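Data availability (excerpt). The following record was deposited with the supplementary files.
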Amino acid sequence: APLVVSPDAYIEGLLWKAIGAHPAGAKGPGFGSWAFPPKIPDLPDLDSKT
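Predicted structure:
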């Protein structure tokens, strides 16, 4: 029988945590979350490599 991956595997994938996002349509951000701008994480300065 072919392997069938659970739909939950996509929703709970590590990718979403790694990029600080959620899968579209799978998890709601919560009531009222649209009232505030999104939190953008600070990224290290990539130009300062020596």
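Summary of structural features: The chain has two helices and no strands.
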